[in-house]
Amino acid sequence: EIERRGGRVVISPAPVIRKSALRPLGMVRLLTTAARSLVPSIRLIRAADMVYVSTLTVPSWIILGRLLRRPVVCHVHESERAAPIWLRRILAGPLLAADHLLVNSEFSRGVLLESYRSLGPKSEVVYNGVPGPVTAVPARDSLEGPIRLVFVGRLSPRKGPQVAVELVRRLIAADVPARLDIVGSVFPGYEWFEDELRHTVAEAGLADAVTFSGFSDDVWRHLANADVALVPSQGDEPFGNTAVEAVLAGRPVIVSSSSGLDEAVSGYTSAQRVAADDIEGWVAAVTSIVRAWPEYRRRVAADVDAAHARHAPQIYQQAMADRLEELVAGK
Predict the structure, then answer these.
(1) What pTM did the predictor assign?
(2) pLDDT in tens, 280-314
(3) What pLDDT, in 10s, does the model give residues 258-267?
């Protein structure tokens, strides 16, 4: 895509900070990559007018850019508030060398400032651009048959598909017919979790109520077939693109009330926020939508327009272009 738009792509090694770096072998690999990447990185940065780093986990680009006297902007998408403060300080330390920071939410910015208050004056929030479907399929006029729930995301304990499964079990037990479409796959090494999730579904007798659709690059099709989207994350989220996608698709969404997810659905009247571990709250949220379906259809229709205005890719692209041009110009 970059080449199609006239850009040049150069693949260059770079050290990436991962949890594995805390182990001896991981640290050796990190330092080896850092040494191997030094000359190629310097060559690239010297040929550049500025350095844009789209994560805080590649610190060498920030530091080298500063040493080579290039304007450096880092776009921060991470917010590891659950990590120990000493680890967060290590991760955020290289940001002190950046000229400007773009952050994807007020929550993420707040986590950074807990590490270094001095990052405040040079940081600003630019909400993610989130493209919507070409045409949003209207929600069903009436809920005939089971309510159709959808979970879109990585299959991991942190993303909470196990909560969605338990929610369906509770709804059916309460005589509220429900179906769940789980759209997503596991990260390598987490295959055990999918096996455990499938076992739970089978043990609970939910094989006919829960569908594992796997990874899909067309989430709009699954959202169009659903009535309500679920984002039951069990940990902090920097933002909540999945929640915004649900609104853009014209579907009520229920999210875990925490971190960047609260920010992502703020102002949308068709969205509900529930404590991550409050399963009765999740049941109540779905039940309230079932009982007031015509009202939620009306609300989400208005929310679609608001989401487009807030997250239109063109608005995001222009905001990013303006910030980077100002940086290059030394403003």
Answers:
(1) 0.89
(2) 999 999 999 999 999 999 999 999 999 999 999 99
(3) 889 999 999 9
Q: How many residues does the chain have?
A: 331
Q: Which residues contact 286 (CB under 8 A, 6 or more apart)?
A: 147, 149, 167, 171, 176, 178, 228, 254
Find the angle CA(144)-CA(219)-CA(234) to the nearest 5 degrees.
90
The set of long-range contacts for 271-280, using a CB threshold of 8 Å and a minimum separation of 24, is 271/243, 271/247, 271/303, 276/160, 276/163, 276/232, 276/233, 276/234, 277/234, 279/163, 279/166, 279/167, 279/170, 280/170
What tokens appear for 216 in the block? 């899909």
Cα–Cα distance for residue pair 28/22, rounded to 1 Å? 10
Lowest average pLDDT, out of 186-200, 246-260, 313-327, goes to 313-327
The letter for the amino acid at 222 is H
